[in-house]
Every structure is written in structure tokens, then in C-alpha cells.
Amino acid sequence: MQKKSGAVMNLLEEKQLEKEENEQILRQKSRERLLEVARKKRKKKRMRKIILTTSLLIAAAATVTLCFVFAETILQDMTDVEVDYSANNTPVNEKAPKEDVPEFVSSGYDHIEYSDASKNSRYDSYKMQNPELSDEEIVWRVNANLDKPMYEFDIPVSGYDDPYIIVNKYYTVPEGYRPPDLEDFGGGQLLREETGNAYVKMREDAQKEGLNIRLVSGYRTVEYQEGLYNRYLGSDTQENVDRYSARPGHSEHHTGMAMDIFGSQDGLRNFENTPEYPWVRDNCHKYGFIIRYLKETESITGYEAEPWHLRYVGVEVATDMKEKNIKSFEEYHAKYIG
User: Can you tell me the distance from the alpha carbon of 250 to that of 172, in angstroms, rounded to the nearest whole number?
Assistant: First the structure.
């Protein structure tokens, strides 16, 4: 009887392992599909830009040719006019001075892969205001809407299931927004399944090195963020509050892919002084996370440094950002996702 019971247990364990392996395969395939979709989007965008640039160059070449033909015709007509001299030997029908033929002038941004010809006037305007910036930086900043005042308008986010969704002081989620597959990963803190599994793996690996990472804030509803933001306004100016708290609808916590963490000491502002911080800073990309708000990106994000705030973007993007030394998701999104 014991042998039979043991065999049943082994069979159940094997089925459980098989189920877990199948789930892992499905998650991996899901990630691969999402990455493939993103790659196809970028490829289509590049092709559209190539076609647009080629069309513009062809049109420009045709314009230049017509200008030259027109100019040559005028010069020929002028040559055929007889010069009539007055009594004092001054030419009356003197030829008009030759005018320079207008030449096609490139926008100066077409060579930048992530440029958008429809935004050339915005690029030029922003360049005049920031002449110290390179053309590449001008283009991605305008693509990220940094030439506009923050909170001037709300751009709807791209979709509920997009792992590369961007939510900031320009992009907002609609009221009632709730991402799919939210799960409790401790203390009632919800995260999307893939984000939560990555957090658990990171926490477990940190524990192996004697470090303690704790999730203290995950998914937030728009209503919760509204209450939090208004409480801050009760004791501080809006200008100050906007530097450390998102307005409702503009918080990354709405995505279910952002989280605040503690280290071995309680308190968000203590995190940078814990041994967990340098480990997270150097290793979080291996699990698909980035530290979202850094001191050097405050002028881009509009937020002061928050070393405790992590955003899940997937291992591929997080690693690519680290290798390219891109500090903000705004820059990466404007250049490679769009």
C-alpha cells in the first residue's frame, strides 16, 4: 500500500513538474512573440522612413531640374532681346541681373534613423532654443515631446498588453485602466505576472548573497494615485509635489510593471544607503528591470532621483539600455520603440 501511495505521489510530482515546464515554455514563447512584434514595428517604421526619404529626394531632384530648365529659358529669352541705346549712349533695355537659382536644402535630420519628417519644423525650433545639443539629441527629445511643456496634453498609452508601454508626464492611461494578469507577490502588492516572476527571481538571487529586497508598492489604481497626490498637495506646493509624485493617470504604477522596494532598512529614501542598492543598480537589468528615475535624468523625466523605483521592460531592452548607456526610458523609447 505504501509503495502504491509513493508511486501516486511520484506521478503527481511528475505531472506538477511537467505543468510548470509547460507554463515556463508558454511564458517564454509569449515573451518571444512580444519581442518579435516590437522588432517588426521598428522594421516597418524604418521602411516607412526610407520610402519617405526616397520620395522626398526624388521630388527634390525633379524640382531642381525644373528650376534649371526654367532659368535657362529665361536666360535665353534675355539674350535674344536687342539692347536699345538712348542719345547719351545709356542702355535702355539692359538685361536684368541674373538671380541665383534656388537649391533644395536638406532638413538636416533625414540621416538620423529615428527622425520623422513631419516634425522637421519642431526639430528646427528646438535646435534654435538648444544650439548646444547634437542633431541626434534634438530629434529624440522632440520625438519624446520634450519640446512641449509637461502635462500640456495627455497622449493615450499604446495598449494594455504592451510590455514597452510608456507612462509619464505626457502619456497617460484612461480612467478605469487595469492591466491584465495581476497577481499578489506579497503583502497585497500586485504586479503583472511576468514582472512579479522577475522580481521573485531577483529577490532570491540577492538573498543568496545575504541581501534583502522587499516589494512595498506595486500596481496602483488611478483613484488611489489621485488620493495620494492630493494628500501631498495638502502640505506642499504643486511645483514641489510634481517632482516626487505623479498626477493621477500619469503614474508608472498604473502599468503593473513598476515597483518601489526597500532594502535591509525601512524607508524609500534610505534605500540608496543600503548594501542592496549597489547590487540592484549593477544587476537589475539581468532580470529585465531599470532604475527609472536617476539624478541625471530629472530634466527629462521631471522627477527627482528615485533609486528605489524599478520599471520592468524585459531583459532584452534593459540590457540594451545598459550596453548603450541610455539612462532614461524616454530616450530609448523615442529612438528604438516609438
Answer: 5
Read off the pLDDT of each residue in 324-331 and give the average, rounded to a whole number: 97
Distance CA 63, CA 2 (A): 91
- Residues 261/265/266/267 CA torsion (nearest 10 deg): -70
Q: Which of 20-34, 99-113, 215-229, 319-333 shows the lowest mean pLDDT across its residues?
A: 20-34
Kindly state the cell numbers that stand for 251: 503614474
Q: How many CB atoms lie within 10 A of CB 71?
A: 15
Residues 6 or more apart whose CB falls under 8 angstroms from that of 314 comprise: 31, 34, 35, 163, 164, 288
Compute the mean pLDDT over every residue in the chain, rounded to the nearest whole number. Answer: 82
C-alpha–C-alpha distance, residues 210 and 323, integer Å: 27
- 203: nearest Cα among 193, 214, 195, 192: 214
Amino acid at 295: K
Q: What's the one-letter identity of residue 302?
A: G
Contacts of 270 (CB under 8 A, 6+ apart): 262, 263
- Global pTM? 0.70
**Residue 223: all three cell numbers together:** 483613484
Question: Could you give phi then psi for residue 34, rounded to 5 degrees?
Answer: -65, -45
Please report the pLDDT score of residue 79 as a whole number.
Answer: 43
* Secondary structure class of 127 (helix, strand, coil): helix
- Which neighbouring-strand residues pair with 182? 192
Q: What is the DSSP letter of 336?
A: I
Largest pairwise CA distance in the chain = 136
Any bridge partners for residue 192, and if so which? Answer: 182
| Planar angle of CA 247, 301, 139, nearest 5 degrees | 125
| Alpha-carbon span 126 to 119, nearest angstrom | 11
Strands 214-217 and 289-293: unpaired
Contact 291, 280 (CB under 8 A): yes
First and final C-alpha spacing in the chain: 64
